[in-house]
UniProtKB/TrEMBL annotation:
Main location: cytoplasm
Protein name (database record): U8 snoRNA-decapping enzyme
Organism taxonomic ancestry: Eukaryota, Metazoa, Chordata, Craniata, Vertebrata
Keywords in alphabetical order: Cytoplasm, Hydrolase, Magnesium, Manganese, Metal-binding, Nucleotide metabolism, Nucleotide-binding, Nucleus, RNA-binding
Native source species: Canis lupus familiaris (Dog)
Assembly with partners or alone: Homodimer.
Cofactor: Co(2+); Mn(2+); Mg(2+)
Broad enzyme group: hydrolase
Catalytic activity: a 5'-end NAD(+)-phospho-ribonucleoside in mRNA + H2O = a 5'-end phospho-ribonucleoside in mRNA + NAD(+) + H(+); IDP + H2O = IMP + phosphate + H(+); a 5'-end FAD-phospho-ribonucleoside in mRNA + H2O = a 5'-end phospho-adenosine-phospho-ribonucleoside in mRNA + FMN + 2 H(+); dIDP + H2O = dIMP + phosphate + H(+)
Ranges for domain Nudix hydrolase: 18-173
Keyword Transmembrane listed: no
InterPro entries membership: NUDIX_hydrolase-like_dom_sf (IPR015797), NUDIX_hydrolase_dom (IPR000086), NudT16 (IPR054754)
Keyword Electron transport: no
Family of the protein in this entry: Belongs to the Nudix hydrolase family. NUDT16 subfamily.
Length: 195
């Protein structure tokens, strides 16, 4: 979100009735796999191709009538990713950040949840049967967490895609903070981190 300002959660929730809330989640799992038998995958990190052709995280607008931000996010995950995602135990402890957009008066709340690889595979398998598949969501993608020898293939090339709002910054911050990539690999490959 160009021009978005980062807020503490309590400040974001106190913005008042003129503001809408959106919640999105990065779902990830340890992945012991090897690409071409030699490049460690480390983690499977899910993003989705949205209806507008941009990459983003599953989620969307929530109503505080859902009971909580997390309940609204679970509802959104169920609609976009299917039944397996409805059982992802997202909690306030999974909250990472909030960003307020200057124009449309939307505050975006970001969560990250580690799953088992089996849980993540179940989400991927069930996603094509989700209510919003083919409508709001055109498909799931995994983020390549490696950089190929050419210095471009893998994560650097992936980051050249078009992302919605603050999704790219949220991804980079989560990759670094959750240590989903090798320490220093983002800066070693000249991937700019969020400010």
């Amino acid at each position: 979100m160009a021009g978005a300002r980062k807020l503490e959660l309590q400040d974001a929730l106190a913005l008042g009735p003129g503001w809408r809330h959106a919640c999105h989640a990065l779902l990830y799992a340890p992945d012991p796999g090897l690409l071409f038998g030699r490049i460690p995958l480390r983690y499977a990190v899910l993003m989705q191709m949205r209806f507008d052709g941009r990459l983003g995280f599953p989620g969307g607008l929530v109503n505080l009538q859902d009971g909580s931000l997390e309940a609204g996010l679970r509802r959104e995950l169920s609609e976009e990713l299917g039944e397996a995602a409805a059982h992802v135990p997202l909690e306030r402890a999974d909250y990472r950040s909030s960003h307020a957009a200057p124009g449309p008066r939307v505050v975006a709340h970001f969560y990250a949840k580690q799953l088992t690889l089996e849980q993540l595979l179940a989400v991927e398998k069930g996603a094509p049967r989700a209510k919003d598949h083919g409508l709001e969501v055109l498909g799931l993608v995994r983020v390549p967490l490696y950089t190929l020898r050419d210095g471009v293939g893998g994560l650097p090339a992936f980051l050249e895609n078009s992302f919605i709002g603050a999704a790219k910054e949220q991804l980079l911050e989560a990759l670094q903070d959750l240590e989903l990539v090798e320490p220093g690999s983002l800066t070693a490959h000249k991937i700019s981190l969020p400010h």
